[in-house]
Amino acid sequence: MISFESVSKIYPDGTHAVEELSLEIATGRITVFVGPSGCGKTTSLRMINRMIEPTHGVLSIDGRDISTVDAPVLRRGIGYVIQNAGLFPHRTVLDNVATVPVLQGRSRREARLAAAELLDRVGLDRNLAKRYPAQLSGGQQQRVGVARALAADPPVMLMDEPFSAVDPVVRNQLQDELIRLQADLGKTIVFVTHDIDEAVKLGDRIAVFAVGGRLAQYAEPAEVLSRPADDFVADFVGRDRGYRALSFVTGDLPVRPEQTLTLGAPVPRGAGSAAEGISADHGRWILVVDDDRRPRGWLDCAAVPVGHPVGVDDLVLGGSLAAPDGSLRRALDAALSSPSGRGVAVDADGAVVGTITAAEVLTAIEQSRGPDKVTT
Ligand SMILES: Nc1ncnc2c1ncn2[C@@H]1O[C@H](COP(=O)(O)OP(=O)(O)OP(=O)(O)O)[C@@H](O)[C@H]1O
């Protein structure tokens, strides 16, 4: 556990960057520091590895006051990842990752072997190992940055806006991979971002900082969204927090059985759905599945003749064809982004269970609100 006890940082010019910060960071979890620019997130993060010394207060790791530990010794157990990766420009990808283990006394050969494995782990093609950082995309550089921080196998990882400089699609992938890595490795990760969506997605707990280095709220993401501690947090979290909070609300989705057509089969006469609550426009779409009943796409029956063998090129992919994780936000999104107006629910093997319309998800949302309802 990392513990801040009444920690303050006043810079020599008098700036109060962090004010009396007290918080405990759980081992093996992802804790996110989030807040607007200049509110002391980076300063707080860097006090954990003593890149910045506190003015007052005590910071300890597993009960040991870190001011009593030599900074280089302390840093051996703490990986550090920053925006734009901060890679050594004149070293290859592989040597960037192998640097710290070599400094720690491992042979170059051994360190390079371990580095190659780490590249796999962070989803980087080994063919890139001999390139230099400038020959990589921003997302690839960030992956190298993460691999490099993991190379010394530190129990703690500090990550300062590591994904801010990449485009939203790559950013999403990097976030997913971090969650996957964390599930595998169980590191204690402290992650700084100014993006509340990123904080909510990654954090087991999130600390919302206000200007002046004040900790405004420290709680699980669902609680920050549903019960902001004060007006500052409510404002920072934003207007559509009610919708975002749906990510954490799961409910029994009343899915309806859906008629399906197997890929390659001829389109039958009268295909489509005439079920209650489905408009004629939506009813002309039929769900096409593969031999294992996994959804492949939607077929517009009005666009193909009866008897036509359905092929992949005939299909329209809706955002609905993702495995639902049970969150009502995913279900609503699936229904809204499907050409048929129906989101597809699948089982653990990815086979179709049934479908649900946006109106039905809204009913499920209403039912799930109960006394703990999300205020907007
Ligand atoms: N070396 C320094 N000397 C004086 N003031 C500093 C120094 N470093 C940071 N500050 C100030 O301390 C405050 C907190 O900065 P910090 O970088 O910790 O914030 P942050 O929340 O990480 O911001 P950002 O999201 O913009 O990186 C800011 O007002 C900043 O200007």
UniProtKB/TrEMBL annotation:
- Could you name the domain of life of the organism this protein comes from? Bacteria
Q: Which PROSITE patterns match?
A: ABC_TRANSPORTER_1, ABC_TRANSPORTER_2
Presence of keyword Nucleotide-binding: yes
Its EC number is 7.6.2.9
User: What family classification does the UniProt entry report for this protein?
Assistant: Belongs to the ABC transporter superfamily.
| UniProt GO MF annotations | ABC-type quaternary ammonium compound transporting activity; ATP binding; ATP hydrolysis activity
Q: Has the keyword Zinc been applied to this entry?
A: no
ABC transporter domain location is 2-237
Q: What is this protein called?
A: ABC-type quaternary amine transporter
Which PANTHER family does the protein's record reference?
OSMOPROTECTANT IMPORT ATP-BINDING PROTEIN OSMV
Q: Which UniProt keywords apply?
A: ATP-binding, Nucleotide-binding, Transport
Q: Which organism is it from?
A: Nakamurella multipartita (strain ATCC 700099 / DSM 44233 / CIP 104796 / JCM 9543 / NBRC 105858 / Y-104) (Microsphaera multipartita)
